[in-house]
Amino acid sequence: MIALVHLISISDTTDQSGVRIIEYAPFGVCSKHIHIEIGPDRKIKRVEYVRGCSGNTQGVAALVQGMSVDEVIARLRG
Questions:
Q1: Close Cβ partners of 26 (under 8 Å, ≥ 6 residues apart)
Q2: FRET partner for 28 with CA separation of 20 to 30 A, picked from 1, 7, 13, 54?
Q3: pTM (two decimals)
Q4: Interval 66-71 mean pLDDT
Q5: Residue 15 φ then ψ, to 5°
């Protein structure tokens, strides 16, 4: 069975140091909010989930930290 997750970007900004900050409001899953920070080098600096399955979200956040955006997409795409 494939789970479909719908993401609605509620904010996508870049701060003065070049860090891209993306806020998502997913639905169809336990998490209510996802905060992602991507450095100017396109590496994931931080991921934070609000609510959701604690072990899973903490694991994913720790796993992707420091990875390039392209590597994360390739690994999680399946």
A1: 5, 6, 7, 8, 32, 33, 34
A2: 13
A3: 0.82
A4: 97
A5: -85, 180
Residue pair 12/3 in contact (Cβ under 8 Å)? The answer is no
**Residue listed under structure tokens 């399955």:** 53
Token readout for 1 is: 């069975």
Which amino acid appears at position 38 of this protein?
I
- The DSSP code sequence of the chain is -----EEEEEEEEE-TTS-EEEEEEEESSS-SEEEEEE-TTSBEEEEEEESS-HHHHHHHHHHHTTSBHHHHHHHHH-
